[in-house]
Write a structure and sequence with these properties.
By secondary structure, this protein is of the alpha/beta class. The chain has 5 domains: 125 residues, N Utilization Substance Protein A, Chain:P, domain 4, CATH 3.30.1480; 64 residues, Nucleic acid-binding proteins (OB fold (Dihydrolipoamide Acetyltransferase, E2P), Beta Barrel), CATH 2.40.50.140; 81 residues, K homology (KH) domain (GMP Synthetase, Chain A, domain 3, 2-Layer Sandwich), CATH 3.30.300; 55 residues, DNA polymerase, domain 1; 83 residues, no CATH class. Helices cover 42% and strands 20% of the residues. Helix 5 crosses helix 8 and helix 17 packs antiparallel against helix 18. The radius of gyration is 52 Å and the shape is elongated. It starts with a helix and ends with a helix.
C-alpha cells in the first residue's frame, strides 16, 4: 500500500494534470538540495523516496578511480582502495560509483522551506510544459469553455486543463458574459512566456463564424458547400463567400436555410451581428461586384494585377452605400477579395478622364492679354483675381465672374462677347473684323482716298454725338454736308437727312461702327447709280 506522502503526490498530479513521477523527482531533488545546503558541501547528492514507507533518504555519490589515476576532485572522486574499504571488501571497478548515506534528521525549518520552494517550482514548470504540449498544436481550433472570472477588461476562461485569457480586443462589443456561462471560443495562440504558457482565446476571430456554419449547415459539414473566404469585424458585420461543389445545390440558399432559420441561429449566437452571404466566383471582377453588395456596381476594372488593385465605378447615388458606414463595406470587401479596392463615382471618373485628356493634349494656355476686346482695365481686374488665361476665363460662369470686384452686368456682357469673338463665334448680324466684307455685286468695292477722308469725318462727327448736350439734328446735318463737300461731283442716294438720335455714352464703339457703315453704304449706292 502506498504511503500517505505518495498518495498526496498522486492527488497533486491529477489536479495539475502532470505525471506523478515528475512530482516524485521534484521531491527527491529538493531534499538533496536542502541537505547539501545544510552540510555546506558540493558533494553530488541524490534523494530517494520509498513509495511504500514514504521515507526519504539522501546519499552522496563518489566516482571510483584506479589506483594509478590522480584524483582531481577529492569531494566527488575516491580511489579504488578507499572505496573497497568503505564497501567492506566488495569488488568494485574503476569508473563505478559508491554512495555514502547522509543523515537528514538534523535538517531544520529553513531546509524544509527551501525544499518546499524547489518542489513548487518544479511542479509549476511541469504544469507549464503540460499546458504548452496540450494546446500549442491546437491554434485556430474552437473550444468549449466556461467563464471563470473577470479581471478588468479581460475575461478569464477555464478550458478544463488550463486557464485562458480573452483580452478586450478579442471580444465582441455586443457580448456580455457572466461567471459560469458556457461559451465557444477560438484558441488564438499559446505564448511560452517567462511566467509560463499564456493561452489567449478569442470571440472575434473569423474561425468562430466558420465553426458555427459547420455546426448549423449540413452541406458545409459534408463539404458539399465550401467556405472560400471570411472577412469579419466583430460586433458589426461579417462577409462570408461560399461555393458549391454540386451544381444542383445553391450555396447561398443552403447557408440561409428555410425562412432564414440557419443563419438566424448563427446571428443569435453572435448576439445580433450582421452576416452577408456571398456566392464565390473565380472571376475577380464578378466576385468584387458581389462582395460590394448591397451596393449596385456599374463596372469593375483591374488596375494592377501584380499589386492586386481594382477600380470600382458606381453611380453617384450608390457611392455612400458602396463605401458603407465609416468605410466598413468596402473594407470588408477588400479583406474578402484580398485585393485593394478604389471606389469612384461616375462624376469623379469623368473628371479624372477629362484631366488626363487635358494632360495628354499639353494643356492649352493662352494669355488673357490676347483678347484685345476686353480692355486694359478689365484685364487688370481679371489678372488680379487670378485669371491669367483665356481658357480659364471661358470655363468660368457668370456667377463666378460677378464675385470679382469691379465686374458688373455690362462688363459681364462685354466679356462674353469678347470671348466668343476670340474663339470665332459670331451671332447673326455680327461681322468678323478679320474677314473682308463682300460687296453686293460680283466685284468687291475698294474705297478711294476720298472715301477714307469721308469716313474719318463721319467718325469724328459720330463721336461728337456722344456728348448728350449736343444737338443731334444739327450734328447729323453738318455730317452730311461734309460728305457732299468731300466729293461734290459724285451722285448720292441720299435725298433727305434723317436725325440720328444721341448715342449712349456706354456704347462709344457702336457710334463708330454706325458711321463707318453709312460711308460704305453711300459709296455702294453711288456706284450702282453710275452704272445705271
Amino acid at each position: 500500500m502506498s504511503s500517505p506522502l505518495y498518495q498526496s503526490i498522486e492527488a497533486l498530479s491529477r489536479e495539475k494534470s502532470i505525471d506523478p513521477s515528475i512530482v516524485v523527482s521534484a521531491v527527491e531533488e529538493a531534499i538533496a538540495l536542502a541537505t547539501r545546503k545544510y552540510y555546506k558541501t558540493q558533494e553530488n547528492m541524490r534523494g530517494e523516496l520509498d513509495k511504500e514507507s514514504g521515507e526519504i533518504k539522501v546519499y552522496a555519490y563518489k566516482t571510483v578511480l584506479g589506483d594509478d589515476v590522480e584524483i582531481e576532485d577529492p569531494v566527488n572522486q575516491i580511489t579504488l582502495e578507499e572505496a573497497q574499504v568503505m564497501a567492506g571488501g566488495a569488488e568494485l571497478e574503476p569508473g563505478s560509483e559508491i554512495r555514502l548515506y547522509k543523515d537528514i534528521r538534523p535538517l531544520g525549518r529553513i531546509a524544509a522551506q527551501l525544499a518546499k520552494q524547489v518542489i513548487f517550482q518544479k511542479v509549476r514548470e511541469a504544469e507549464r510544459d503540460t499546458v504548452f504540449n496540450e494546446y500549442a498544436h491546437r491554434e485556430k481550433e474552437v473550444l468549449s469553455a466556461t467563464v471563470k472570472r473577470v479581471e478588468g477588461q479581460d475575461i478569464i476562461i477555464d478550458l478544463g486543463k488550463a486557464e485562458a485569457r480573452m483580452p478586450k480586443r478579442e471580444q465582441s462589443r455586443l457580448e456580455q458574459f457572466s461567471v459560469g456561462e458556457r461559451i465557444r471560443v477560438v484558441l488564438l495562440k499559446v505564448d511560452r512566456a517567462a511566467k509560463g504558457p499564456q493561452v489567449v482565446v478569442s470571440r472575434a476571430a473569423p474561425e468562430l463564424v466558420s465553426n458555427l456554419f459547420q455546426s448549423e449547415v449540413p452541406e458545409i459539414y459534408d463539404n458539399t458547400v465550401v467556405i472560400r473566404a471570411i472577412a469579419r469585424e466583430a460586433g458589426e458585420r461579417t462577409k462570408i463567400a461560399v461555393m458549391s461543389r454540386d451544381k444542383d445545390v445553391d450555396p447561398v440558399g443552403a447557408c440561409v436555410g428555410m425562412k432564414g432559420m440557419r443563419v438566424q441561429s448563427i446571428i443569435r449566437e453572435l448576439r445580433g451581428e450582421k452576416i452577408d452571404i456571398i456566392e464565390y466566383n473565380e472571376e475577380i471582377t464578378t466576385f468584387a461586384e458581389k462582395a460590394l453588395q448591397p451596393a449596385k456596381v456599374s463596372r469593375v476594372s483591374i488596375v494592377d494585377i501584380a499589386d492586386k488593385q481594382l477600380e470600382v465605378i458606381v453611380d453617384d447615388t450608390q457611392l455612400s452605400l458602396a463605401i458603407g458606414k465609416k468605410g466598413q463595406n468596402v473594407r470588408l470587401a477588400a479583406k474578402l477579395l484580398g485585393w485593394k479596392i478604389d471606389i469612384k463615382s461616375e462624376e469623379e471618373k469623368r473628371q479624372e478622364v477629362e484631366q488626363q485628356m487635358t494632360g495628354f493634349s499639353g494643356g492649352p494656355s493662352t494669355p488673357i492679354e490676347a483678347v484685345s476686346e476686353l480692355g486694359d482695365s478689365v484685364i487688370q481686374k481679371l489678372v488680379a483675381f487670378g485669371i491669367t488665361t483665356v481658357e480659364a476665363l471661358a470655363d468660368m460662369t457668370p456667377e463666378e465672374l460677378e464675385v470679382i470686384p469691379g465686374i458688373g452686368e455690362k462688363t459681364l456682357e462685354r466679356i462674353s462677347v469678347a470671348v466668343r469673338h476670340y474663339f470665332g463665334q459670331y451671332e447673326e448680324g455680327e461681322t468678323n473684323p478679320n474677314t473682308p466684307a463682300e460687296a453686293s455685286t460680283s466685284e468687291a468695292v475698294e474705297p478711294t482716298d476720298s472715301d477714307a477722308e469721308t469716313a474719318h469725318a463721319l467718325t469724328s462727327e459720330a463721336t461728337a454725338a456722344l456728348d448728350p448736350d449736343s444737338n443731334s439734328e444739327s450734328v447729323a446735318t453738318e455730317t452730311m454736308e461734309a460728305v457732299i463737300a468731300a466729293d461734290p461731283e459724285r451722285p448720292h442716294a441720299i435725298d433727305s437727312v434723317d436725325v440720328v438720335p444721341a448715342v449712349n455714352p456706354e456704347a462709344g464703339l457702336e457710334a463708330t461702327e454706325i458711321a463707318e457703315e453709312a460711308v460704305i453704304n453711300d459709296k455702294v449706292d453711288g456706284e450702282n447709280q453710275g452704272d445705271a
